[in-house]
Amino acid sequence: MHNVSRSPSSRVELHARGLQLGRELSTRAALFHQAIAMRLGLGASDHKFIGILSGTGPVTAGRLADLTGLTTGAVTGVIDRLERAGFVRRDRDPGDRRRVIIRPLPEARATIAPHMESIARATLALYSRYSEQELTLVFQYLAEVTRMLHEETLKLREETVRVRAVTPRPRRRGRSVPVAAGRRAAPSTARR
């Protein structure tokens, strides 16, 4: 298997090294996807929505909100930007004309693919350095980390909703009003 530059002498050091490498990997992945998004003229979250839609296929805005933890209003803004950029299309749900289905456009994949070719080649070259047994272990680890991240994301969202449900808005003119769970406080229209 690939050698890490430093060989930790204890399990505690090994765990610390794993956490450090995980943070570095997360940061590098975020920066890579930000660079791709910039190249496409998108924001990073908009670019990741395209990835989500590639996995889900056509889906409602409400389902996208559930998958991302964003409000339906925020999701609508992302969809508006992706639609203007030619990456998605809104279609009426044939089963319920009140609902709108967000469809990723095939042209979107064709637009993004050239920007992913280099990293795809580099990833395949990296895989070639490992045995099938080692790759199986690596892929098992990645699947478990992906599941863990999903679970931790859900926990954070639930905690955020609970905290927001009981956290008062900043005081304005001597009163404190609680913010509804999962919603931002509306800006005050009162003049000072």
Brief summary of the model shown:
The protein is mostly helical.
Give the topology:
Blueprint: H1 11-40, H2 44-56, E1 59-60, H3 61-68, H4 72-84, E2 88-93, E3 96-104, H5 106-127, H6 132-166
Antiparallel strand pairs: 1-3, 2-3
Helix pairs in contact: 1-2, 2-4, 3-4
Give structural notes:
By secondary structure, the chain is mostly helical. It has a domain at 11-129: Arc Repressor Mutant, subunit A (Orthogonal Bundle), CATH 1.10.10.10. The protein contains 6 helices and 3 strands. The protein has helices spanning 11-40, 44-56, 61-68, 72-84, 106-127, 132-166; strands spanning 59-60, 88-93, 96-104. It has a 3-stranded antiparallel sheet. A hairpin with a 2-residue loop joins strand 2 (88-93) and strand 3. Helix 1 packs across helix 2 and helix 2 packs across helix 4. The N and C termini lie far apart (66 Å).
Descriptors for this entry?
192 residues; mainly alpha; 3-stranded antiparallel β-sheet; 3 strands; 9% strand
Helix-residue proportion: 55-70%
The N- to C-terminal Cα distance equals 66 Å
Largest sheet strand order? 1-3-2
SSE arrangement, N to C: HHEHHEEHH
Q: Briefly, what CATH class of the domain at 11-129?
A: Mainly Alpha
Tell me the major beta sheet. Answer: 3 strands, antiparallel
Radius of gyration: 22 Å
The CATH superfamily of the domain at 11-129 appears as Winged helix-like DNA-binding domain superfamily/Winged helix DNA-binding domain
Number of strands: 3
CATH fold type of the domain at 11-129 = Arc Repressor Mutant, subunit A
Strand content bin: 5-15%
Overall CATH architecture of the domain at 11-129? Orthogonal Bundle
Point out poorly predicted stretches: 179-192
Shape: globular
Mean pLDDT: 84
Helical segment tally? 6
Structural class designation: mainly alpha
